[in-house]
Design a protein that fits this description.
There is one protein chain. By secondary structure, this protein is an alpha/beta fold. The chain has five helices and 17 strands. Strands 1-5-7-9-11-13-15-17 form an eight-stranded parallel beta sheet, with no helix packed on it. Strand 2 and strand 3 form a beta hairpin. Helix 2 crosses helix 3. The relative contact order is 0.07.
Length: 218
């Protein structure tokens, strides 16, 4: 349907004469007649006024399909394998699939992901390296290295551990450099720390102020 036919259609739906429409727009009757016969077109500045008079959008005036309002994006994630317990977790997804062990497809060589957090943390779970700029009130579980201040619970790390005092035990795949450790300490490489309240087990040397339990090293 042409623009002229659209103008005539909506004018009639509003029970307006050509004269009434012309007066509302400040043009002549002949101008409106020529529009409706498709002999000329309204000035571009009159188009919004025409739409307003008819109570329609410009898209409808030109018989274009009106776009539906944009809907907010909703991200749907599969059920998570933990409760809503307030703990801080860094996880890795491929699509909607949670991967317990992170591996990036499509490229040679290992790739590193580091989780850096600046804020209060009760407990921290991460498949990646963890760097906390503040103390952690609870424990830290990391798939890679751990670098933080004091830890109020235990520390489990797939790689090395560098931190302040640890209230609980420390288990590291590589070396351990800490303050005091309130439980056992186990490291794939050397252990350098203050006092250890439990046993110390290291793949290399154990260099500490004091160990309350037994020392086992490579």
């Amino acid at each position: 349907m042409s623009l002229g036919n659209q103008i005539a259609r909506f004018r009639k739906e509003k029970s307006m004469t050509q004269e009434a429409l012309a007066n509302a727009l400040g043009v002549t009757n002949q101008a409106v007649s020529k529009w409706e016969l498709d002999q000329s077109c309204p000035d571009i500045q009159l188009l919004p006024k025409l739409a307003d008079l008819f109570g329609i959008s410009l898209d409808r005036l030109f018989e274009r399909q009106e776009k539906a309002p944009a809907q907010p994006q909703v991200i749907r994630v599969a059920d998570l394998p933990w409760e809503d317990d307030g703990n801080l977790r860094a996880v890795f997804y491929i699509g909607h699939t949670l991967r317990k062990h992170w591996r990036f497809p499509g490229g040679p060589g290992p790739k590193q992901v580091e989780f850096v957090y600046d804020g209060p943390a009760l407990n921290v779970h991460s498949d990646f390296s963890v760097t906390c700029k503040r103390d952690v009130e609870g424990y830290v579980n990391a798939g890679d290295s751990v670098n933080c201040g004091n830890v109020g619970g235990y520390v489990n790390a797939g790689d090395g551990v560098n931190c302040g005092n640890v209230v609980g035990t420390v288990n590291a795949g590589d070396g351990v450099n800490c303050g005091n450790i309130g439980g056992n300490a186990r490291a794939g490489d050397s252990i350098h720390c203050g006092d250890i309240a439990g046993d110390a087990t290291a793949g290399d040397r154990v260099i500490c102020n004091g160990v309350a339990g037994r020392i086992r090293n490579g």
